[in-house]
């Protein structure tokens, strides 16, 4: 896995770019910008489902979701650049593994939303509260993204092999 | 930080007409939460500055970040004030009107992009880490 990622990074030129003086900070900036796009769209929509800003139309906020998807795509691309440039620093890192777990949770949560209640939420009147299931999905989404941000910040402090972790 | 930038980006997109304007009294709870998050940024920022004063204060990128952050927050404050004036004058919220505030939206986007970029570059551009270097 580690070797395959490194080979991919070298073949595509990602490794050389990332290890140039500008590489890492530029990609980190793009990663944070993508995250902010996600929080500004999906996060605001989640808070609205939880009852904040009663009166703001769900269908209007839902129109921002493609922007959030763009932010997510930006994060997947930049995240892959980090991972393939220094795979040993990520694959065995407990903070990164936890972050991936929460990303999986957030992904399943989105699927749950779109398969069960997205149409219903978009059709909900402006001042009407959404049903309990939609609120739960909003809360799980918010918690998952907060955890993803926290784990992302912790990656640098749990670099292997300096910290022991029970599953490495 | 992600929440502060996120709310500002959502506001910028609404000013650009991507969605109907969010600048009405219904958005006020988001502003409240936004200013609490700004408070958190301030506290954590001061803590980091106290921990490594020389690292930040000797780096020009720190001043760039501080300027862009302040400008971004001033624009948000101005938007919130204009929204409150609109409500006080009993003007209806411009829910379905396309907004003509594109320059403000682009200024907001620029401020936050610079804030994020400068924040990340801070970790890579410092030339002094500890003040003890000067003693």
Give a written overview of the molecule.
The complex is a heterodimer of chains A (168) and B (135). By secondary structure, chain A is mainly α. Helix content of chain A is 75%, strand content 0%. Chain A has helices at 2-12, 14-18, 23-49, 58-62, 65-85, 87-91, 94-116, 118-123, 132-154. The relative contact order of chain A is 0.14. The mean pLDDT of chain A is 89. Chain B has 135 residues and is mainly α. Chain B is built from five helices and no strands. The A-B interface holds A 21, 24-26, 28-29, 32-33, 35-41, 43-44, 47, 52-57, 60-61, 63-64, 67, 149 and B 1-3, 5-10, 13, 18-20, 22, 26-30, 33, 112-113, 116-117, 119-121, 123-124.
Briefly say what this structure is.
The complex is a heterodimer of chains A (168) and B (135). Chain A has helices spanning 2-12, 14-18, 23-49, 58-62, 65-85, 87-91, 94-116, 118-123, 132-154.
Protein topology:
The complex is a heterodimer of chains A (168) and B (135).
Chain A: H1 2-12, H2 14-18, H3 23-49, H4 58-62, H5 65-85, H6 87-91, H7 94-116, H8 118-123, H9 132-154
Chain B: H1 2-15, H2 28-51, H3 53-57, H4 60-88, H5 102-125
Helix pairs in contact in B: 1-5, 4-5
| Head-to-tail CA distance between termini of chain B | 34 Å
Helix content of chain B: over 70%
Strand content of chain B: under 5%
The main sheet of chain B comes to:
none
Which stretches of chain B are low in confidence, meaning pLDDT under 50 for 5 or more residues running? none
What gross morphology of chain A would you assign?
A: elongated
Key features of this structure:
heterodimer; A: 168 residues; mainly alpha; 9 helices; 0% strand; B: 135 residues; 5 helices; 71% helix; elongated
